[in-house]
Every structure is written in C-alpha cells, then in structure tokens.
Specification:
4 helices, Creatine Amidinohydrolase, single chain, four-stranded antiparallel β-sheet, alpha+beta
Length: 255
C-alpha cells in the first residue's frame, strides 16, 4: 500500500535523514587504504547506539537474503554493487567502495548510499560514480507533483544509456516511512507519463546503480552481496526524498 505523509509527518522525518547523511559522511571520511570493512560497520554501529537510533539492516531477512543481515551498513567493493555484507576485508589502494545505510530515528526511516574510491582512483571509476550521481539528480528533478514514476525512471535510464551502461531492473528505489522498504517500487528506467502519479506527501528512496560493462548480477556465496556477472565494477548513489507541493525535499542531503 502506498502511503502519503502529512506536512507534520514530513517534518518529523527530517532528523532521520540528517542522521543517515551524518553517518555516511563519517564513513566516507574514515574509509581509507588499510581500513577493514568491519571497522566501518563498527563506526556506524557506535553512531546508531549513541544517537538512540535503530538499525534497519541488522535483523533484516527478506526472501532474497540467505539469513538475517547481521550488520548495520552495506559495504560493496569493486565488482560488488549492492547489499555488500561487511566481512574481514582490508581496503586496498584503488578500491571502489559503495556504502548503503538506512536506519530509523524516532520511528521514521531514511535510506541513502554513496560510492567513492579509496586511495588512487581510476578515471573510469570516477566517471561511473559521477554517472550514478548525475542520474540521481536527474531522477530527483522529476520527482514533482503532477509527474509519474515513469518520469523518474526515464530520467535515470537516459543518463545510464548516454554513458553506455545497461540498466538492471531487479533492484531500485522504494517507498520509505515507518519501515525501510515500502510501496511503490521506483525502477531505474521507465516510460514518461506512465506509472503511479506523484502526489504531495509521497516519500521515496531513489537509487540508481550501474555496472561498467554489464547489467547482470549474481549473489555471492555469503548469501547477500550482489556482484556483476562479468567482474566489472559497480557504483550506487541514493537519497530519500519527500514530494511536497513546492518541489522535492532531500532528507539525506550531505553538506
């Protein structure tokens, strides 16, 4: 069921967005050559505890996960692009790292993701990250009352095609509210003027993710991490936004 939030509820959702942005900013600062993925997860775990927030991931066990996730942040490295399960891996020079984080503050959820290169970057990795960020901005620009979900998807898809990337529609954005994943599904491609009409009070996460040379993924043996079928690298950017009458409001914007 698609739920619309009142103006008062949208105001109540702002702290969760600010906290998610704060955690991702901190993790980005701490991600460096020689840092272990489990250390990053522990930083996020400590911040959640100190804030009195609640993880959306640690007990999360959807049908596509082999077991409860057990960690509080997704850390996807290089050919991993989504749902990366933190494990005993030390970041190396040139690694492409995607961080996806969601949590609940005062009963309201926000969800966001960033990608970055640790150490010496490859030009193609920076371009891939930039493409996801441009696609995210394009999707947000279309998230206005009177448009439809297809307008958001088409804007994202057009950016991907222009950059030469395929588009996988298995995973995308979603409704956000009291729980992390709700209706509607927000695909990363679509047809303009088609789909659910965007109404005041709709709150969604928009989540473009692309692989350099493939649009096919498989699940790692850990039962969670999604990797490219051809070993090419992936990047992921996401924000939680509300759609008030006067234009999109980005809850998870980072300073």
């Amino acid at each position: 069921m698609i739920e619309l939030r009142t103006p008062a509820q949208i105001e109540e959702m702002r702290p969760a967005g600010r906290f998610v942005a704060e955690v991702l900013t901190t993790l980005k600062e701490k991600a460096d050559v020689g840092v272990n993925l489990l250390e990053l997860d522990e930083v996020a775990h400590t911040m959640i505890k100190e804030r009195g927030a609640e993880s959306c991931y640690i007990d999360y066990h959807p049908s596509f996960g082999a077991s409860p996730f057990g960690k509080v942040v997704c850390t996807s490295v290089n050919d991993a692009v989504l749902h990366g399960l933190p494990h005993d891996y030390t970041l190396a020079d040139g690694d492409l790292l995607s961080l996806d984080f969601a949590c609940s503050v005062d009963g309201w959820v926000s969800d966001s993701a960033i990608s970055l290169v640790v150490g010496t970057p490859r030009d193609e990795d920076l371009k891939l990250i930039e493409t996801t960020e441009v696609a995210l901005a394009a999707g947000i620009e279309q998230a206005v009352v009177g448009n439809k979900l297809g307008d958001i998807g088409r804007a994202i898809g057009d950016v991907a095609r222009a950059a030469g990337h395929g588009i996988n529609l298995q995973f995308g954005g979603h409704g956000v509210g009291r729980t992390m994943h709700g209706d509607p599904h927000v695909p990363n491609d679509g047809r303009p003027g088609r789909g659910f009409p965007l109404k005041p009070g709709l709150v969604i996460a928009i989540e473009p993710w692309f692989l350099q040379t493939s649009d096919e993924i498989y699940t790692d043996k850990d039962g969670w991490t999604l990797r490219s079928a051809d070993g090419s690298r992936g990047a992921h950017s996401a924000h939680t936004i509300a759609i008030p009458p006067d234009g999109p409001l980005v809850f998870t914007a980072r300073d």
